[in-house]
Amino acid sequence: YKRITVKSLVDMKKRGEKISMLTAYDYSMAKIMDGAGIDVILVGDSASNVMAGYETTLPMTLDHMIYHAKSVVNAISRSLVVVDLPFGTYQSDPKEALRSSIRIMKESGAHAIKLEGGKEIKESIKRILHAGIPVMGHLGLTPQSIYKFGTYTVRAKDEEEAEKLKSDAKMLERLGCFAVVLEKVPAKLAREVAESVSIPVIGIGAGNGCDGQVLVVHDMLGMTKEFNPRFLRRYLDLYSEMTGAFQRYAEDVKSGDFPSEDEQY
Ligand code: KIV
Ligand code: NA
Prior knowledge:
GO biological process, one term: pantothenate biosynthetic process
Number of strands: 8
Function: Catalyzes the reversible reaction in which hydroxymethyl group from 5,10-methylenetetrahydrofolate is transferred onto alpha-ketoisovalerate to form ketopantoate.
Bound molecules: 3-methyl-2-oxobutanoic acid, sodium ion
Pathway: Cofactor biosynthesis; (R)-pantothenate biosynthesis; (R)-pantoate from 3-methyl-2-oxobutanoate: step 1/2
Shape: globular
Number of domains: 1
Active site: 183
Subcellular location: Cytoplasm
């Protein structure tokens, strides 16, 4: 395999080839994903929800993210690895944002960072890009601002927010970001944004007009049960499969069926 780079992604958009992206937080999952040909692996701060069981992404620390990122990087031979800057590690000032990004790049070996927001964090994005660190933007529903929004419903449905999103996307392109995630915005708006910028727009709940798609791996594998947004397509029902496996194992242990003659020394 040829390694995916930030440049390959921009070339893919030019060719009209869609970009596949999934989240991963550990070595074993990332190894399967990399082998399966997923273009971009996002070490998302959604680790807070699916790995650690928190209600929001806010508790995630830089040390947590670096641990997950390093575990993923250890598995990779082709995919591009992007790591979320967690809440509170880039919002106060550009220097802090750069310091956090450098720690991620140095200590995990990842290839790029992602952060949430538009013009509010312009100076931070500039600073990080100046240091040679590729940046992926994230607009629309930005879960680190959940207490400002109040709900996880679709963003940018009104004209004012849609206009801000469009100009933020333009700004991210102008600054030199290599891609941008659009989360939970109307499909029509996402398509418009994708057509207006040369960098890839990766959608989650943002419709088919995007240049690529991203899902949280636990959701697409059907490991999560209560999370049922319209945009989620489940490719497996791992919740049931795993429940069955655990139950059969417990039965086999209790009945003395496991281990058999062949399964011992
Ligand atoms: O943390 C995450 O999983 C994300 C994706 C949903 C884009 O940011
Ligand atoms: Na995230």
